Recover the amino acids of this structure.
């Protein structure tokens, strides 16, 4: 369902840091109402913490609150709006899809604006995912890598330099990066079209693009071997059962987007947890 974004006044200076989340939300209004809604909710929560309680700040945030309340009522039958588990699965799958698309093209030497924007949008969505709790180790590493890559490729192109594909490593260091999905198509998920073509500088002031770190992080992905002989019936805590249910929920959500690899990955995590009582690592 396409959304009409809020009619917001000019953003107050003190709240400019939330502009990037509002911009990503606006880009998804006609593509993905779930992403649009949760990006604005995250912007609101961050804005409330930054607000100096001036009339300008208050007026801006109240208009955002009004839009969120109205939208939630309008989309009351959308589980990814009303249910945090479904919302987390939806956002996590889209962030991962964008990340894998950008990483695949980056490794192939394709340094287009779509690749920069996909890395950039993925790292913004990982910020939004902290609404539901601390990021997993994998998600946190993906976010850090995406943030660095977006800035690195952008800065190289601005300076007329050719970016180095993939993660950088010191001389003699072996990379432990696992190649991502073989899907080299643009991440089109049902109603979601290709990643927007604008670069990060279109979404935020140039000063908001982080500098390239001296030692950029290497991307890691979760991996584990599942023992077919593992006995079932282990004692699980309430928290472990809830975590397994989330993995299964995420697997179902991934299938909604025909993303079989992500679905299989989450099902394996659920099975590993249910049969061993141990968190997948």
């Amino acid at each position: 369902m396409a959304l009409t974004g809020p009619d917001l006044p000019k953003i107050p200076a003190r709240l400019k840091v939330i502009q990037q989340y509002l911009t990503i939300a606006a880009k998804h209004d006609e593509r993905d109402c779930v992403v649009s809604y949760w990006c604005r909710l995250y912007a609101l929560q961050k804005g409330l913490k930054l607000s100096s309680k001036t009339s300008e700040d208050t007026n801006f945030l109240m208009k955002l609150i009004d839009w969120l309340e109205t939208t939630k009522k309008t989309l009351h039958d959308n589980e990814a709006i009303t249910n945090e588990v479904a919302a987390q699965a939806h956002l996590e799958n889209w962030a991962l899809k964008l990340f894998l698309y950008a990483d695949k093209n980056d490794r192939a030497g394709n340094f287009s604006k779509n690749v920069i924007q996909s890395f950039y949008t993925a790292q913004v969505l990982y910020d939004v995912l902290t609404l539901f709790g601390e990021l997993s180790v994998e998600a946190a590493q993906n976010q850090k890598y995406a943030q660095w890559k977006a800035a690195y490729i952008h800065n190289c192109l601005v300076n007329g330099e050719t970016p180095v594909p993939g993660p950088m490593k010191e001389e003699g260091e072996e990379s432990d990066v696992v190649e991502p999905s073989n899907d080299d198509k643009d991440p089109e998920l049902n109603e979601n079209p290709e990643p927007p073509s604008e670069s990060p500088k279109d979404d935020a002031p140039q000063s908001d693009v982080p500098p390239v770190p001296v030692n950029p992080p290497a991307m890691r992905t979760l991996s584990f071997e599942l023992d077919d002989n593992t006995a079932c019936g282990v004692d699980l805590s309430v928290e472990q059962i809830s975590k397994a249910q989330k993995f299964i929920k995420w697997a179902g959500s991934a299938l909604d987007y025909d993303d079989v690899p992500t679905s299989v990955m989450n099902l394996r995590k659920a099975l590993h947890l249910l049969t061993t009582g141990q968190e997948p690592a």
The domain at 238-276 is CATH 1.20.5 (Single alpha-helices involved in coiled-coils or other helix-helix interfaces). The chain has ten helices and no strands.
